[in-house]
Amino acid sequence: MADAADAQGSRAGEGDAAVRVLPVDGMHCAACASKVERAAKGVAGVREATVSFAARRARIAFDPRAVDLAQIAGAVRRAGFTLDIARDPEVRAAREAADARLLRLRVAVGAALSLPLVVIAMSHGAIPALDGPAMPWVQLALATPVYLWCGWPIHAAALARLRTFDADMNTLVALGTSVAFASSAWTLLAGGAAHAGHAGHSGHALTFEAAAVILVFVLLGRLLEARATARAGEALRALSTAAVPAARVVVDGAEREIAAAEIEAGMLVVVRPGERIPIDGTVMRGESEVDESLLTGEPMPRLRRAGERVFAGSLNTVGALEIEAGCAADETMLAQIAGLVDEAQSTKASIARTADRVAAVFVPIVLAIALGAVVAWLLLAPEEIRRARAVEALVSVLVVACPCALGLATPVAIMVASGRAAALGVLFRRANAFELLAGVGRVAFDKTGTLTEGRPAVTAVVPAHGWSEEALIGLAAAAEVRSEHAVARGIVAEARARGIHVEEPTAFTAFAGRGVHAKVLAHTVEVGNAAWMRECGVTVDAHGSDGSGATRVFVAADGAFVGSIALEDRVRDDARETIAALRALHVEPMLVTGDAEQPAGAVAKALDIDPAAVHASMTPEGKAALVARFAEEPRVAAFVGDGLNDAAALAVARPGIAMGGGTDLAKTSADILLVTDDLRRVPEAIALSRATLRVIRQNLAWAFGYNLVLIPLAAGALYPWTGWMLPPVAASAAMALSSVSVVANSLRLRRAVVMPRG
Ligand code: ADP
Ligand code: MG
Q: Which residue of 472, 564, 595 sits with most ligand 1 atoms within 8 Å of its CB, as the best mutation to test the pocket?
């Protein structure tokens, strides 16, 4: 990103300082907070430090060229408190970079020392200079640092495991290379150089080069793997660094700068041209082209003006915007994505865990096979090659059987796919959502706010005898003014448009999927659908349906019917394209709505949805029951919804997909979240999930197949017929290669799209 400097938080007043808000542990009182402040401010390069005891957070502005976060954390630690910098993306990146550097050094040193080892071992007396009695000692000298220093991470991990009587892939490699190294060293030291040199010709009793090369290959494999997984997490990391550390808010008419973490819902935030937007909210004033590509994958900036929603992390290009914060800083869509990054980090941990679980089953089997091979070689092979071949088979089997690729097969693919999905504007909130969505054969859509825009406009007002249109609208609007429902907003908007004063209700209750009950100026008022009127004991003397696709709601005052209001909602622009894309994926669209048959049928007709797949007049409980039944049927259905009335259905759906503009309850109930309201992301997400599952299956097949074929070869199963067995060095190359190919296969998902984007 060209604006990375901006993301670091260059703000007026603090020059080019970096600003961070970080958690502080160990504070007991406000006095502790000022001690932390003093400790941080005492570090040269720190410009400003404010610590909130209540929030247990420190806001630190510092010059990144003069001081780094670790030094500041050190000063805070000496004062007796903990500044939690481990979660800071840059600190994490720095630590990972240092680890990678050391690993690269180990590989480089190991390779440089292994090369002459291989040359000596291969010369077999062809080069006299390499065949002297001193040569075995040279081999020992070259192999020892590789075995001890380069291989240390592997040995240390294996030892740590041994202490808990556990084994993992490190155990196999450590054991294999130790056998190779120790048996050679023993031959040399016990039998003397002359004897060892001789044995080296006849039976390869010296396997120094195998021990060294295996370790180098395993480390090289890890290096490549680490690079590839880092690349896999890149898309997610790009999102987390887009969080803006500081923001300007308007308080009592004056602009004030605060940490973005301190923004709360309802605050008025000012964003200047070229700055990133710090919070999700609604534009109150100004207009500007906003680049939302980071969140939605949409490359073209969009014009955003008063009344429209904007998201934290998107880039304001040319205009100035005043935004009313729609949530607190840690509740933005971006923060949720940052949560995903954390999950991706723990995915790395879970990669290790999966691999270890596999290893727990695998290792004993492999040890048994290796031992079997040793026994067979010792019993069956001719005397002179017996010992050397037994060692070789043991080493090869141990090394080739490492289940690294098996452990990587699923989690790496999920991680890459999560990054890809986030770039497309889809959040998979659980790893198993990919599996669920890939298996979907139908998608049930909610109508209002999902297939339609959710901004119904009043098209007809039909007052009962003795009532005027104005009186009817005014009463209905007063009852609805506190409702979040699309119908309610339409009625209130109509009242305002007609210049009717909207009374504040003294009591208000919403009944999801049915209507509202309110007290307005000593009258009880009910507004809702026909079922709601029946429930309230109101007789509706309206003249049937008018045959149009409009939604009709009825209004009652003090138990008597006073009129009906018709509203019409526009079908979303992207709905048609979405339905067509689903059909292309052989996914059947369905419609599930709380609205009546008529308007449901009109939308279904406009979108070419099969009338048999339309379920109208569903209560929220009815929706949930229906969706739960879909999960049992052979053609599993996903459910896409937005409203309070959809939350229950979203929770039982496997999977539930929530619209970005939907209610919070809907969003927290869903497995998958569309960042914006673009329906075309639904077929894209399905295609991506299917691709992900395909990659996982390929990975598993490859990893299993590779072990299945190579273990017998390493044990020497073909030797009696061909005189050939897999040499230890080749075994280690194959092992490293199989892990790398699993990761590389998964990386293909980074480019897995999917549909043409409009
Ligand atoms: P959908 O499933 O299409 O999103 P809902 O389940 O939210 O619709 O609502 C179903 C029907 O209940 C609406 O079409 C409307 O007739 C009625 N209704 C729900 N809430 C309200 C409300 N606040 N005011 C008036 N009518 C409502
Ligand atoms: Mg809805």
A: 595
Predicted TM-score of the model (pTM): 0.72
Ligand 1 residue neighbourhood (C-beta within 6 Å): 446-449, 480, 483, 485, 487-488, 510, 513-516, 527-529, 551, 553, 593-595, 643, 645
Of 396, 391, 358, 360, the closest CA to residue 374 belongs to: 391
Tell me which residues are annotated as active site.
Answer: 446
The residue whose CB lies within 8 Å of the most ligand 1 atoms, and thus the one to mutate among 473, 514, 532, 646, is: 514
Query: Could you tell me if 192 and 203 are in contact, meaning their C-beta atoms sit under 8 angstroms apart?
Result: no
pLDDT in tens, 665-712: 777 778 898 887 889 999 999 999 999 999 988 998 888 888 889 999
Beta carbons of 81 and 56 less than 8 angstroms apart? no
Residues 6+ apart with CB under 8 A from 519: 505, 506, 507, 508, 525
Q: Which ligand is nearest to the CA of 640?
A: 2
**Mean pLDDT value across the chain:** 83
pLDDT digits (tens, 9 = 90+) for 159-168: 988 888 777 7
For the ranges 539-543, 552-556, 578-582, 724-728, the lowest mean pLDDT is seen at 539-543
Three-state DSSP class for residue 246: strand
Total residue length of the chain: 758
Domains of the chain with bracketed CATH: 2-87 (3.30.70.100), 92-234+348-411+701-746 (no CATH), 242-330 (2.70.150.10), 426-446+575-618+626-675 (3.40.50.1000), 457-568 (3.40.1110.10)
Cis, peptide link before residue 655, omega less than 30° from 0:
yes
What SS3 string covers 32-77? HHHHHHHHHHCCCCEEEEEEECCCCEEEEEECCCCCCHHHHHHHHH
Structural tokens at position 49: 């430090």
